[in-house]
Amino acid sequence: MEPVYFTFILMLAILLGFELISKVPATLHTPLMSGSNAISGITLVGAVTSAGAGSDVLATILGTGAVIFASINVVGGYLVTDRMLGMFKKKESVNETKALTKEK
Amino acid sequence: MNSLALINLSYVFAAVFFILGLKMLSSPATARRGNLFSSLGMLIAIVATLLGEGIVEFQWIALGFAVGGIVGALAARLVAMTAMPEMVALFNGFGGLASLLVGSSALYPTPAESSFTLVTIALAILIGGLTFTGSVIAWGKLSETISGRPVLFSGQRIVNGLLLLAIVGVTVLFCLNPSNANYLYVVIGLSFLLGIMVVIPIGGADMPVVISLLNSYSGLAACAAGFAIDNIILIVAGSLVGASGIILTNIMCKAMNRSLGNVLFSGFGAATGSGTAIEGEVKAMSPEDAFYVLEAASSVVIVPGYGMAVAQAQHVVKELQELLEANDAEVVYAVHPVAGRMPGHMNVLLAEADVPYELLLEMDAVNPRMETFDVAIVLGANDVVNPAAREIEDSPIYGMPIINVDYARTVFVLKRSMASGFAGVDNPLFFKENTRMIFGDGKETISQIIREFSN
Asked: B391 vs chain A: nearest CA distance in angstroms?
């Protein structure tokens, strides 16, 4: 594809990113950061391409290293975000959990 | 339909999931599902890539997935909530390193002819490399493996300027002779050095800015790698992350009333408060007496800071909140945007302690009604409640928006000793007429007050 199309897409994606994020409340800044951090692990797709092309030993080695680090980023990022978000509770649900524990 | 078109179609779906996921992250009610959507997008993108024609060997990929997946999953499970800032920094660094490796691997077996591609490869390596070492230094500072104090030396700007010039020069040489591996090594080395040089002068209190900035860089590195290997989903996802990181960085800078350049180059924490000496009397109070005041209070605002994370006091704070509520008092939390060591740090800790997120108010929501609170409890926060930002014009933090706790009827400051905060600035709050200092470990002090309640 022509570089100019890529650049076009780049511009649209950046503007969309600005739009999406400017509305996130401060409460969610940490999960937002670790969640978007996990998305930046998308470089894993490129890593897979390099590691699996089988064309050159050095490319395979570099690619495999990239797969390792990118997977840490992706897997760790999403899990840690999920763990954090699981803790964010509304008032009612906090009370429900408390009621449940009391019943036990 | 050929397989390339199919892959690209899957990438479109993946991008839609990323965008929806980020959108759903804007409300606590949908955020968890949003994260799931985003991870689904990632899964689609990876599976589509694996099915493509270009992939002929799977053993190395499987090995990489296994190693990285296990390490990532274990780290995510085991990390303590208080250690979250350094964990996020480290994950971020790995993302940058991966982009560096992807960029480098695009040079083999034969480097591309087009100079556009070569420039993007160089960018992926540079941004990826500086994200990696920058994040590792940030990790070190946050986990206190290395000192959190800013490292400054004379001529730092000149050294950094020369470093930038050297990087530009070597990058040009590299793009002209892509088959000469020596230039590649120098580019990598210099990018590592740049990452270190950028983060060492930054003090611990400015870490929220640095982390969000590095977050943005890791996205930009992925984006550059996407250009390098002609992969559209890397470009789209990478630039989404890049943009979101920049927005967060901007929010953090505004919350400190400083420009990004000022945060990056001034070595703020090193400035010792040479300004006006603050004179006055500090009035100490015992936890027992604090209890009597709290018992009579009908509205209480708690202002947490990094000290709450250090003392691991979030659970006892929640206990105190429940006791006060049982005593018919209204309790809210006021969270400054840069309290703690990463954006939203306090919110995560309080969520861990089961504090409902409706009770966590932002600075602008609390300040207008600060006069109505009987008691403001400052727990491990210092600079974000420092009235010097309002009153003392030559203070280094003058102009920074703060939580005006001094307008509350009574202020309790829970503090270990009289040392100044991370910014090294004296705090006139401690000397105000309505301020009472309760010295000691924050967690221990609150536990004592709680014990008084049960007596």
From this structure: 27
Q: Which domain holds residue B361?
A: 287-454
Q: Does B84 touch chain A (CB under 8 A)?
A: yes
CA-nearest of B371, B360, B443 to B405 is B371
Of A39, A48, A80, the CB nearest to B241: A39
Residue B73 covered by a domain:
no
Structure-token pair, residue B177: 């002779």
Claim to verify: residue B222 and residue B307 sit in the same structural domain: no
> Which of B13, B105, B120, B354 to probe the A interface (max A CBs under 10 A)?
B105
Residues B159 and B306 in one domain: no
Residue B366 and residue B334: Cα distance in Å, rounded? 6
Q: Is B386 on the interface with A (CB under 8 A)?
A: no
Residues B260 and B293 both lie in one domain: no
Residues B23 and B90 in one domain: no
In Å, how far is A4's CA from the nearest CA of chain B? 11
Taking CA atoms, what residue in A is nearest to B105? A59
Q: What pTM was estimated for this model as a whole?
A: 0.88
Q: Which of A10, A26, A91 faces B358 most closely, judged by CB atoms?
A: A91
Examine residue B181 and state whether it is found in any structural domain, yes or no.
Answer: yes
Whether residues B13 and B102 share a domain: the answer is: no
Chain A, window 46-65: residues with a beta carbon less than 8 angstroms from a chain B beta carbon:
46-56, 58-60, 62-65
Let me know if B383 is a catalytic residue.
Answer: yes
Provide the CATH number for the domain around residue B343.
3.40.50.1220
Q: Name residues whose C-beta falls within 8 Å of residue A35's C-beta, 6 or more positions apart in sequence.
A: A77, A78, A81, B21, B22, B25, B34, B35, B38
Please write the tens of the pLDDT for every residue from A53-102: 887 888 999 999 999 999 999 999 999 999 999 988 877 666 655 555 55
Residue A77: strand, helix, or coil: helix
Residue partners of B394: CB distance under 8 A and separation at least 6: B275, B276
pLDDT tens for each residue of B126-174: 999 999 999 999 999 888 888 877 887 878 888 888 999 999 999 999 9
Q: Does A96 touch chain B (CB under 8 A)?
A: no
ipTM: 0.89
Q: Are B371 and B248 in contact (CB under 8 A)?
A: no
Instruction: Verify whether the Cβ–Cβ distance B25 to A28 is below 8 Å.
Output: yes
Regarding whether B322 and B177 lie in a shared domain, the answer is no
Q: Are residues B318 and B414 in the same domain?
A: yes
